[in-house]
């Protein structure tokens, strides 16, 4: 299925060395992270291309200040508008916030259910963080300005219902179905939860989603052998072209600079890339370790994808222009150390600790436009 909206304004660069800057008069237009969809995606695309064209990424790893609880404490993180990282509580009953400018870790106000309550989070348009219910039958919203946690209206299925969420162009949150056979959408303005049209496979089908340039949501296949795409305008679910391995193949996805989706290998020993313009799935070059290797990925300032180590003791970086996989510097703890990563404004990658009691920071050397980092295209599990 090709782009239905915004196709004329979202033309992929696909590695072009000739970058046309979007201008109003003589001023370069920077994207607004609160505005998404096919009519505005070209601003993000061009700003990303400008960064990619000159970016350098330091191949280095450090262990930042701070000790975390371990024991599957956090899954996924969200970049706050002030540049700090909010770690989504899973088994722990308190969150953590890492401040990269001060290199300090704090425990914000608020108590969470623990016991696998939430997996993944979404930055709402008002700057608050929505925690996506996994085992919990209610969500939580953290307000970094007021430093408080609230329980919004709405009941969820529990029973490992959802993993990860995506901020829709209209400001609502789409919860990606894991065991649930239906999605949920939370509206922060109306403070209500609805069940959109569409049935999903359940049984651990998807982990995380990616907002496509046209405003639809791509659900990343885990156990499912086919993806799903949710269209919030038509309120419909479709099954795009392409077959996936199933068997816990991928955990999370990354929107590439050219508008395609990179599926991060978990058990699969090869990645997959979905092209929403051509509606096709391809297997890019490169072999991965399998055996629960990676959980989530981050788009580096130079346009490559950094895969966050989970079971693997080394990371992988995929270059979509060269179509190659490399092993960057760094040896990590095995056994589910980290779950998800967040790109910081200084260009480093923050690893969200799951089993690990310390985080890691990879890269640096290239700052990134904060509007891109906060955008729903990139700021999610």
Q: Which terms summarize this structure?
A:
381 residues; mainly beta; Methylamine Dehydrogenase, Chain H; 4-stranded antiparallel sheet; globular; disordered N terminus
Would you write up a description of this structure?
It is a single chain. The longest helix has 14 residues, at 41-54. The protein has a single domain, classed as 7 Propeller (Methylamine Dehydrogenase, Chain H), CATH 2.130.10.80. Mean pLDDT is 92; it is low at 1-22. It has 381 residues and is mainly beta. It has helices at 41-54, 370-374, and strands at 23-24, 27-28, 61-62, 74-79, 85-89, 96-99, 104-106, 118-123, 129-133, 140-143, 148-150, 162-167, 173-177, 184-187, 192-194, 206-211, 217-221, 228-231, 236-238, 250-255, 261-265, 272-275, 280-282, 294-299, 305-309, 316-319, 324-326, 338-343, 348-353, 361-363.
SSE blueprint and pairings:
Layout: E1 23-24, E2 27-28, H1 41-54, E3 61-62, E4 74-79, E5 85-89, E6 96-99, E7 104-106, E8 118-123, E9 129-133, E10 140-143, E11 148-150, E12 162-167, E13 173-177, E14 184-187, E15 192-194, E16 206-211, E17 217-221, E18 228-231, E19 236-238, E20 250-255, E21 261-265, E22 272-275, E23 280-282, E24 294-299, E25 305-309, E26 316-319, E27 324-326, E28 338-343, E29 348-353, E30 361-363, H2 370-374
Antiparallel strand pairs: 1-2, 3-30, 4-5, 5-6, 6-7, 8-9, 9-10, 10-11, 12-13, 13-14, 14-15, 16-17, 17-18, 18-19, 20-21, 21-22, 22-23, 24-25, 25-26, 26-27, 28-29, 29-30
